[in-house]
């Protein structure tokens, strides 16, 4: 059986937490994926050989600084010329955009124009999905990352509020997993003609 190769960017700009959640999401989804880390050195010096290239959360200026123009052009050519597939989440989505507004007048302003939070688009022979939403975040893993002890035994109000939020995420986790699976299936289908990719 042929395993599809998924490469997840991990270099300057990558949030360690986002990387862990994205890798975990693919591992949970199916054992049919070979998941590899990719960095700016590989992108700048080799042809990208992957069924899906993923950039998760972090900060896109870090991506730009490490990849430089040559790495960005290699990613562009991988998608456009080589039928590449790209998944960008949060900073990975901003990184793939021509234009982005985010924190115009501080702190962390979002300019709401009614556009969807998750979009799909074609680029030449390839395509991508860009998401402002962190649909890769696993509430069970997040809980382990945030708390070293049982949060119910901690009198901190913020911690208790976070715990309530995570419990809500757990309640809806099956929907999150279905969304992730659906989006990845759309991306990895070589004959994709879905409305998402038009």
UniProtKB/TrEMBL annotation:
Name of the protein in its database record: Biotin-protein ligase N-terminal domain-containing protein
Residues covered by the Biotin-protein ligase N-terminal domain: 5-112
Entry-linked Pfam families: BPL_N
Organism: Schistosoma haematobium
């Amino acid at each position: 059986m042929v395993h599809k190769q998924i490469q997840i960017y991990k270099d300057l700009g990558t949030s360690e937490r986002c990387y862990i959640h994205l890798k975990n999401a693919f591992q949970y989804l199916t054992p049919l994926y070979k998941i590899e880390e990719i960095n700016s050195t590989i992108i700048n010096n080799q042809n990208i050989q992957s069924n899906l290239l993923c950039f998760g959360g972090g900060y896109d200026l870090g991506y730009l600084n490490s990849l430089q123009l040559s790495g960005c052009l290699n990613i562009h050519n991988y998608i456009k010329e080589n039928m590449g597939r790209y998944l960008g989440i949060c900073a990975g989505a901003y990184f793939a955009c021509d234009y982005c507004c985010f924190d115009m007048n501080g702190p962390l302003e979002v300019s709401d124009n009614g556009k969807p939070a998750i979009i799909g688009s074609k680029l030449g022979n390839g395509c991508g999905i860009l998401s402002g939403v962190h649909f890769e975040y696993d509430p069970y893993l997040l809980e382990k990352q945030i708390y070293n002890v049982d949060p119910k035994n901690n009198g901190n109000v913020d911690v208790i509020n976070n715990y309530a939020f995570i419990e809500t995420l757990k309640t809806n986790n099956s929907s999150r997993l279905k969304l992730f699976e659906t989006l990845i299936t759309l991306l990895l289908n070589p004959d994709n003609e879905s409305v998402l990719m038009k």
